[in-house]
Amino acid sequence: MIINTGQRTDIPAFYAEWFANRLKEGFVCVRNPYNPHQVSRYRLDPSVVDAIGFCTKNPVPMFPYMELLKAYGQYWFVTITPYGRDIEPNVPDKHGLLEAFKKLSDMVGIDSIGWRYDPIFISEKYTLDYHHRAFKQMAAALAGYTKTVVISFIDLYKKVKSNFPEVQEVPAEERMILGKYIIDIATECGMTVKPCAEGNALAIYGAACGGCMLISDYEKAIGKPMKVPKRKGARAECACYISCDIGAYNTCRHLCRYCYANAEPEKVLAQNRLHDSMSPFLIGNYMEGDIIHDVPQKSWIDGQLSLF
Questions:
Q1: Helix, strand, coil percentages for the chain (3-state, nearest 5)
Q2: Which of 59, 229, 255, 301 is the most buried (most CB within 10 A)?
Q3: Is 26 left (phi over 0), alpha (psi -120 to 50) or beta?
Q4: Phi-psi region at 22: left, alpha or beta (left = phi > 0; alpha = psi -120 to 50)
């Protein structure tokens, strides 16, 4: 099976020690965000966990614990955008992140890492021209260290509109102009552009519009075929295979203004005060009334020999 860490928070950036402790103890507990007393308990064992998916803006805190991950298949998305601290107040320096990306690529291999340049929005400061220059510089720096760059244009979810009220959707014409430019530059740098839940509009320019995190991506990363159960995407327009996420909402201290996973900064700070790196839970610990469900787990690796 696949364990996912990055749909609700940034575990490598802020909870690396906790995750390392979970790997050592061999299990993790996850509260249902809509029914907190309903708890799923997952084994963290390479005999049943075929791959761990990461999505982070800063992989560096996880580097001291990479030895613990060697027994697992891995796929990393590292998000590096062109925005400043007015938008991403707690994201580290981008030059340092580009170097960290390259170091991580050397550790896990080029087929196990992708770059996310998203979400994209346009403003008086972050113009089309600005994105042109920024993307070109970043792509040149990452050439040879990844084969994939994922892009998406900002979606105005309720939490996004609350934390970033002045942001506007990117008009269709500007999406096509910028999308074509990004695809051209990425191609020059040996990367395939995968739009995330953006439909097929950019396919005419060479984008791979089938989804940004497919089973085929995991198979390339681990070097083995997989037979997986059918599962719906996270959104109607999403074809990605999103598996069991062990994160929690309202816990990412990057506090990016476009974030869909944080309600408000005050709640994030309150949640973080409840974090214990030794707890089975990312936030808090066992509570009276908890109903623990041990999730059935098995390897999805296809052991049959293939003629192809």
A1: 35, 20, 50
A2: 59
A3: left
A4: alpha
The overall pTM is greater than 0.85? yes
Distance between CA atoms of residues 124 and 57, nearest Å: 24
Q: Which of 199, 182, 200, 201 is nearest to 191 (CA)?
A: 182
Cα–Cα distance between 157 and 231 in angstroms, integer? 23
Query: Which is it for strands 2-4 and 51-56: parallel, antiparallel or unpaired?
Result: parallel
User: How many residues make up the chain in this entry?
Assistant: 308
Tokens at 86, concatenated = 């007015």
The two beta strands, 192-195 and 148-153, are parallel
Strands (E), 175-260: 192-195, 244-245
Q: Is the pLDDT assigned to residue 239 strictly greater than 80?
A: no
Residues 163-180 have a mean pLDDT of 95
- Cα separation of 5 and 3, whole Å? 7
Q: Is 304 exposed, middle or buried (0-12, 13-18, 19+ CB in 10 A)?
A: exposed
Give Cβ neighbours of residue 138 (< 8 Å, ≥ 6 apart): 80, 82, 94, 98, 115, 117
> Mean pLDDT score of the chain, rounded to an integer?
93
Structure tokens belonging to residue 217: 């991506």
Quick: pLDDT tens for 140-158.
999 999 999 999 999 998 8
| Per-residue model confidence as pLDDT tens digits over 93-112 | 999 999 999 999 999 999 99
Task: State how far the Cα of 244 lies from the Cα of 48, in Å rounded to an integer.
Answer: 13
